[in-house]
Specification:
Radius of gyration: 23 Å
Largest sheet: 6 strands, parallel
Order of helices and strands: HEHEHEHEHEHEEHEHEHEHEHEHH
Structural class: alpha/beta
CATH class of the largest domain: Alpha Beta
Strand content: 5-15%
CATH topology of the largest domain: Rossmann fold
CATH architecture of the largest domain: 3-Layer(aba) Sandwich
CATH superfamily of the largest domain: Glycogen Phosphorylase B
Mean pLDDT: 89
Number of strands: 12
Low-confidence stretches: 388-398
Distance between the termini: 24 Å
Helix content: 40-55%
Shape: globular
Oligomer: single chain
Length: 398
C-alpha cells in the first residue's frame, strides 16, 4: 500500500485517494487518507458473546455485500496492491476475505469501475469454495499482474486465461531504499511469525506452532552462545510481537546469565520502520514473506524460513535459492549449517542481492507506467472546429 500511494502521489497527484482496509486506525495518521473497514463485523469482534457473534457474522455477509458494492460504485479505479490476494497459504475461510474480494471485483464489473490486481500472489487452492471465489475475483478484474511466475502458472492451472497477464516484482521492491548499510557483523536480525502452518494444517496447528517456537528459541540461543547480538522483530505487530516476546523469554530462561541487551525485541508497524529495524544487522533469518523481501531489498544476506512456494520463487529469483528452508519441517542443525555458510559468503551474496534489487526497481517502474496507461489514460484532445487548423500545441494532460 505504501508503494502504491507513493506512485499515485508522484504520477497522479490530482487523484482523490481513500481506502477500504482491514485496519483503518492508522490510515489517516500515517498516510493522510480516509478509510472504511473492509468487514462490517470488525467493530464487534472480541466484544460479542457466542450466539450473538454467530448471528452478527451471518448478518455481516449481507451487510458487507451492500457496503462493498456501494463503495466500489463511488470510484473510478480500485487497486488491490500486492499481497496474497489470490492465494490461501495461511489459514483462511472462503466467506471471509475471499468473499469480500469477490464482491469488490464483481461490483467493479457491474458498475464500470476499473479493478486492478497489482503484483498479487496466487497458489493452487484445494478448498473448492475458496478457489471458486478467488477465480471469479481474478476473471472480473480489468487488470492482473503477479509477483512471480509461480503465481501466474497457478492461475493458469486453475483455469484462468493468463495470456494477457504479466509478472512484475512484489510491490515492496518499488519502495525507495535507504542508502546501503552493511550492518554490524555481530548483530543478527531474526524475524518471527505467529506461525500455525497452512490452510490444510488446522488439525495440527497447535503442535506446528509449538515446534516453530521451540526451534526459534534454540537457534537464537545458538546465536548468542557464539557471541552475537539478536534483534527480534515480526511483520504483523498484532500477532508477531507476542511471539518475539515468547522467544525472548525462552532464551532468557535457557540462558539466565545473558545481559539485558543481548537479545532485544523491536516492534514495527510499517515497512519503512521494518527497514530501519533491520539496518543494524549484517545478516537476517526471517519467516514473514515481507520480512524476507525487506532484508533482500536492503542487501542483507538472508535465510528464508518459508511456508509456501512463493519463498522458493523469491529466493531463486534473487539468486540465493540455497538459503531457503521451510518453517514446517525446520531442522535447527540444518539452519545452523546454512547460516554458517551464509556468513562465509556474505560479500558475494550482498553483491548478488544488490544487483537483483536494482533490476527489480526498474521493472517496478515499468509496471507503474503500464498502470498509468491502462487505469488513468489522458483525456483526448478537444475536437477541432470545422474550418480551423489544428492548434499549435496539444493541450496539457489533466
Amino acid at each position: 500500500m505504501e508503494t502504491m500511494l507513493g506512485y499515485l502521489r508522484d504520477a497522479h497527484p490530482g487523484a482523490a485517494v481513500d481506502a477500504m482496509s482491514g485496519g483503518t486506525e492508522r490510515l489517516w495518521a500515517s498516510y493522510g487518507i480516509d478509510g472504511v473497514p473492509l468487514m462490517w463485523y470488525q467493530k464487534y469482534e472480541d466484544r460479542a458473546p457466542g450466539v450473538t457473534a454467530g448471528f452478527l457474522k451471518l448478518l455481516a455477509k449481507g451487510v458487507d455485500t451492500i457496503r462493498i458494492a456501494s463503495w466500489v460504485r463511488r470510484h473510478d479505479v480500485v487497486i488491490v496492491p500486492g499481497a496474497g490476494a489470490l492465494e490461501a497459504t495461511l489459514p483462511t475461510r472462503p466467506w471471509g476475505f475471499p468473499y469480500a474480494l469477490f464482491v469488490l471485483s464483481a461490483s467493479g464489473k457491474l458498475f464500470g469501475t476499473k479493478v486492478a490486481l497489482v503484483s498479487v500472489g496466487a497458489n493452487n487452492i484445494q478448498q473448492r469454495a475458496t478457489r471458486a471465489l478467488s477465480n471469479w475475483t481474478a476473471r472480473l478484474a480489468c487488470y492482473r499482474s503477479y509477483r512471480d511466475e509461480y503465481s501466474r502458472d497457478a492461475m493458469r492451472q486453475r483455469g484462468l486465461d493468463t495470456s494477457g497477464d504479466q509478472v512484475f516484482p512484489d510491490l515492496a521492491f518499488g519502495m525507495r531504499t535507504p542508502p546501503y548499510d552493511p550492518g554490524d557483523t555481530e548483530i543478527v536480525g531474526v524475524g518471527v511469525m505467529d506461525y500455525y502452518g497452512g490452510n490444510d494444517d488446522r488439525r495440527n496447528a497447535a503442535q506446528i506452532h509449538s515446534s516453530y517456537l521451540d526451534n526459534m528459541i534454540r537457534f537464537t540461543c545458538w546465536l548468542v552462545d557464539g557471541g552475537r547480538k539478536v534483534r527480534l522483530f515480526g511483520g504483523d505487530s498484532k500477532f508477531d510481537d507476542d511471539v518475539a516476546r515468547q522467544v525472548l523469554a525462552g532464551v532468557h530462561s535457557a540462558r539466565p546469565e545473558l545481559g539485558p541487551g543481548t537479545v532485544t525485541v523491536v516492534s514495527t508497524s510499517s515497512f519503512a520502520e521494518l527497514m530501519r529495524a533491520m539496518a543494524p544487522a549484517a545478516t537476517v533469518v526471517a519467516t514473514r514473506y515481507h520480512n524476507v523481501i525487506c532484508a533482500l531489498k536492503l542487501g542483507k544476506p538472508t535465510i528464508a524460513l518459508g511456508y509456501s512456494q512463493k519463498f522458493v520463487s523469491l529466493m531463486e529469483d534473487m539468486g540465493v535459492a540455497e538459503f531457503n528452508l521451510f518453517a514446517y519441517s525446520l531442522d535447527v542443525d540444518q539452519l545452523i549449517e546454512r547460516f554458517t555458510e551464509l556468513e562465509s559468503r556474505r560479500a558475494q551474496v550482498q553483491q548478488t542481492l544488490m544487483a537483483r534489487t536494482a533490476a527489480k526497481a526498474q521493472q517496478s517502474d515499468q509496471q507503474f507506467a503500464l498502470l498509468s496507461a491502462q487505469l488513468f489514460p489522458a483525456p483526448p484532445p478537444p475536437p477541432v472546429p470545422a474550418g480551423h487548423g489544428r492548434p499549435a500545441a496539444e493541450p496539457s494532460a489533466r
